Amino acid sequence: MYVCLCNGITESDIRKAAAAGCSSLPELTMRTGVGACCGSCVETATEVLQRAQPAPASPGLDLPVLAVARAA
């Protein structure tokens, strides 16, 4: 679906930008041009960008597993 008609930016374009590390509307505007003309797409573009952000990693998932010796 087109989000920004002025610049022909789609939801897919915004998701790709998010996957490449884009995390704010100003950065998205710099990368894609979304919201740079009439501005009517800004709310939708922001929502799509927020939904496309990768989930934060759970703390502790990258820690090594230690073996624990049990007393006999």
From TrEMBL:
- In its keyword annotation, does this UniProt entry include Metal-binding? yes
- Keyword rRNA-binding carried by entry: no
Required cofactor names: [2Fe-2S] cluster
Q: Which InterPro entries match?
A: BFD-associated_ferredoxin (IPR052371), BFD-like_2Fe2S-bd_dom (IPR007419), BFD-like_2Fe2S-bd_dom_sf (IPR041854)
> BFD-like [2Fe-2S]-binding domain spans which residues?
2-50
Q: Which CDD domains match?
A: Fer2_BFD
Q: Name one GO molecular function term.
A: 2 iron, 2 sulfur cluster binding
* Keyword set, alphabetical order: 2Fe-2S, Electron transport, Iron, Iron-sulfur, Metal-binding, Transport
Instruction: Please state which protein family the record places this protein in.
Output: Belongs to the Bfd family.
**What protein name is recorded for this chain?**
Bacterioferritin-associated ferredoxin
* Organism expressing this protein natively: Luteimonas salinisoli
